[in-house]
Amino acid sequence: MKEFRIPMPARYGINLALIAMFLITGNGVMTSGMLSRAQGAIVIEVGIFIILAVSLNVVAGYLGQLPLGHAGFMAVGAYSAAIFWRSDVLSGVPSIIGGLLVAGLMAAIFGIIIGIPALRLKGDYLAIITLGFGEIIRVVIINLPQITGGTPGLLNIPRHTNFLLLYVCVIITCAVIHMMMKSRHGRAILSLRENEIAAESCGVKTTYYKVMAFSLSAFFAGVAGAFYAGTLGMLTPGPFNFMKSINILVMVVLGGMGSMMGSVIAASILTALPLLMQGLNDYRLIIYALMLIIVMIFKPSGLMGTYDFSLSRILEKAGNWMMTRGDKKGGVA
Fold it and tell me: What is the pTM of this model?
């Protein structure tokens, strides 16, 4: 029996059609007033945390390192975009895109600066140095009031974040990371996770690929920070503490280290959970902690393990199953 296969052009067509349907439907729901203000804010927050979780997964899941400074890169991106937008260098769409690019590039530069010395370390040592970096960024923000607004914060930031722009960037983030991990660069990064010594002996440039993964992760964290600034309209250093980095790491671990779909699901669940448990304010943190403990006990590899969702693969399996059933019925007849 010939196996059912979907041609590659058809796969791209199916994915593009579903993406377009999601964006059009979601934008329609957000602009129609069907959701309350709180629900709309949660939808936007989910998108921001998806970018943060998926980008951190590059280093924590695919590269196999343990960074705890993701909130620092988010802060760099948020303040860079806010300062750019407030300067009125550009206007309209070019200003929005320019702010996102400035945020990503500034965060990537900091990622390279911290990545070159930090990634020579491993495990707990890397976690400590990246945690220190995140705190240094927050202290620098506090002590540059003439640029960042200091402790009182940076006000009057243009609110450029909307559903369509944010989720287009979510899709771009997932697509770029997916394509990179399917390339030879992605295979080199995965080889470092499995056995760094063996990979280096085979000619893989360990420092180069570590810094590449770290800077790419920082770039998208900076973009997420820009959306965060464009959502609130103001920025203070307080939210960018180490607990923010821990929360993002929890999303990656809960979803599955090395699973992009797992990061998307975990970021969506953990971000929307406070809204779903509004009537249980006294028990919310207990339920949240118990849920994490139960998942880690019964599914230590995370909700999705290392599995990455593929619609084409599911459709092919469904087609093969239907063909098998048809053959069996034909044989019986």
Answer: 0.89
